[in-house]
């Protein structure tokens, strides 16, 4: 009997340690796959030197309420998480980009590893003249999202997609910030995607 109890206690302790070291299942949530986000490039190995985000692309969670609230300027792409600061590093403007066309219809996609009741998905884009060699700030973004998909508290599927139209008149390199706002928590998920029009 004592051996069974000891074995059970050992298994529980190992399980608890695994949760501590892996961050546990509660840390898995979601990130943009199309346009391809910085964390997705890190996770698939196309970009190196990413730190822990390469194993946790779904975990860029920060306070909701963007742009009035949320992560501080310069820390937006990492959702304000110091552990993911590599996402805020502009890499001298050398992040890989997704090729897009101004005014084109586009299928936006997120991979969700934990599905939450959702307020909406919103997409912001940088202003003309944005400097891709500097960390992203609110002043770099157009003041209103070019696309907002209301979810009214519904839970999206694991592979969420929505049709939208990219802004007219954009040229060259830009950044699209996707914000997935959770309905029943104080947080949102942030995903920066570099694009070339």
Question: Which properties best describe this structure?
Answer:
14% helix, 3-stranded antiparallel sheet, disordered N terminus, alpha+beta, monooxygenase, monooxygenase activity, Coagulation Factor XIII, Chain A, domain 1, Ig_E-set, GlcNAc_Chitin_IntDeg, 197 residues, single chain, globular, 2 helices
What would you say about this model in short?
The chain is α+β, with helices and mostly antiparallel strands and 197 residues long.
Give the low-confidence spans. 1-28
The percent of residues in helical segments reads: 10-25%
Strand content: 25-35%
List SSEs in N-to-C order. HEHEEEEEEEE
Task: Quickly name the level 1 CATH class.
Answer: Mainly Beta
> How would you state the average pLDDT, rounded?
87
Oligomer: single chain
CATH topology: Coagulation Factor XIII, Chain A, domain 1
| CATH homolog superfamily | chitin-binding protein cbp21
Q: Indicate the CATH architecture.
A: Distorted Sandwich
Number of domains: 1
SS content category = alpha+beta
Q: Give the N-terminus to C-terminus distance in angstroms.
A: 68 Å
Structural Rg: 18 Å
Largest sheet: 6 strands, mixed
Gross morphology is globular
**Strand segment count:** 9
Signal peptide: 1-28
Pfam families: LPMO_10
InterPro entries: Cellulose/chitin-bd_N, GlcNAc_Chitin_IntDeg, Ig_E-set
Keywords: Monooxygenase, Oxidoreductase, Signal
């Amino acid at each position: 009997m004592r051996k069974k109890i000891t074995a059970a206690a050992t298994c529980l302790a190992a399980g608890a340690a695994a949760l501590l070291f892996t961050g546990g299942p509660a840390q898995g949530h979601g990130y943009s796959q199309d346009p391809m986000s910085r964390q997705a490039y890190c996770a698939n190995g196309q970009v190196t030197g990413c730190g822990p985000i390469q194993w946790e692309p779904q975990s860029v969670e920060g306070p909701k309420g963007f742009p009035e609230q949320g992560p501080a300027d310069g820390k937006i792409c990492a959702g304000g998480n110091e552990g993911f600061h590599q996402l805020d590093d502009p890499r001298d403007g050398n992040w890989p980009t997704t090729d897009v066309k101004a005014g084109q219809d586009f299928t936006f996609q997120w991979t969700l590893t934990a599905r939450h009741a959702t307020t909406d998905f919103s997409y912001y884009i940088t202003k003309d003249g944005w400097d891709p060699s500097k960390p992203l700030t609110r002043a770099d973004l157009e003041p209103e999202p070019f696309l907002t998909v209301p979810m009214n508290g519904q839970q999206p599927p694991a592979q969420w997609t929505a049709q939208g139209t990219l802004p007219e008149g954009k040229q060259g390199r830009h950044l699209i910030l996707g914000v997935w706002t959770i309905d029943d928590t104080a947080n949102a998920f942030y995903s920066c995607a570099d694009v070339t029009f």
